[in-house]
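quick q for whoever's on today - can somebody do inverse folding on this one?? i tried earlier but teh output was garbage lol. tokens:
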């Protein structure tokens, strides 16, 4: 369980059970948005981070999702009950309402046997509430990348991991938040370094690999993934490495 302040200017990271979410403060440092909702066990850390930044749930303009898989949806129902809406691409709307209904590209049960390095990550996710994530009653559905998003986020369509996956670019801060379109830890294999998530969690491997181009084109200096450590050598380098590695 880790809180890291200022992984980029005004961007703070919460990591719990091998899953990351990010608080992006606005220019006044009095409010902001939460990027992704982690797992349910992440909530105390998010609240601790808000307290450290002299903020509260009421300070948040929204929770904005890169995608709606259960491990990025964990605090969203609680936030919704506090009046904080969750925004998600319309392609992931059905998953946001029913987070266990998505189809991976390959059966998930194969992976712990094939990749023993995944066990500790998957076990940590279960302990953090991965099997008891609530769906959302009223997510705010975003139809395309031209929608004006809370916090000045620029949506970068990156489908493949899910149909509606998007990354978020903050050009003035030199940051791209990639969700699971590009990670530096794959919890399904335990492997580290820039890559797309294994087919156990990725719906369409070919689309996911093609979406790396959109991440590279941001030219961001810092890559903040949904799983794993920040990558500080730039979006182009991260995407290049991920293309070579492929998908398990």
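ok took a stab at it. sequence:
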């Amino acid at each position: 369980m880790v809180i890291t302040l200022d992984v980029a200017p005004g961007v703070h990271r919460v990591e719990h059970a091998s899953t990351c979410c990010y608080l992006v403060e606005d220019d006044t440092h009095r409010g902001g948005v939460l990027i992704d909702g982690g797992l349910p066990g992440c909530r105390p850390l998010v609240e601790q981070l808000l307290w450290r930044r002299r903020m509260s749930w009421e300070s948040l303009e929204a929770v904005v999702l890169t995608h709606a898989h259960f491990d990025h949806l964990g605090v969203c129902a609680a936030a919704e009950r506090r009046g904080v809406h969750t925004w998600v691409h319309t392609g992931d709307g059905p998953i946001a309402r029913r987070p266990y209904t998505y189809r991976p590209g390959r059966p998930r049960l194969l992976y712990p046997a094939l990749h023993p390095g995944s066990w500790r990550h998957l076990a940590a996710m279960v302990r953090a509430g991965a099997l008891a994530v609530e769906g959302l009653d009223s997510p705010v559905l975003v139809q395309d990348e031209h929608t004006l998003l809370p916090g000045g986020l620029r949506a970068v369509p990156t489908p493949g991991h899910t149909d509606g996956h998007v990354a978020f670019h903050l050009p003035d801060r030199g940051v791209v938040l990639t969700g699971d379109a590009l990670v530096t830890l794959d919890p399904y294999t335990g492997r580290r370094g820039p890559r797309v998530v294994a087919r156990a969690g990725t719906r369409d491997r070919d689309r996911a690999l093609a979406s790396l181009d959109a991440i590279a084109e941001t030219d961001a200096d810092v890559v903040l993934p949904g799983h794993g450590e920040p990558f500080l050598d730039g979006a182009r380098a991260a995407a290049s490495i991920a293309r070579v590695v492929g998908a398990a």
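fwiw The longest helix spans residues 235-245. also The mean pLDDT is 94. so keep that in mind when u check it
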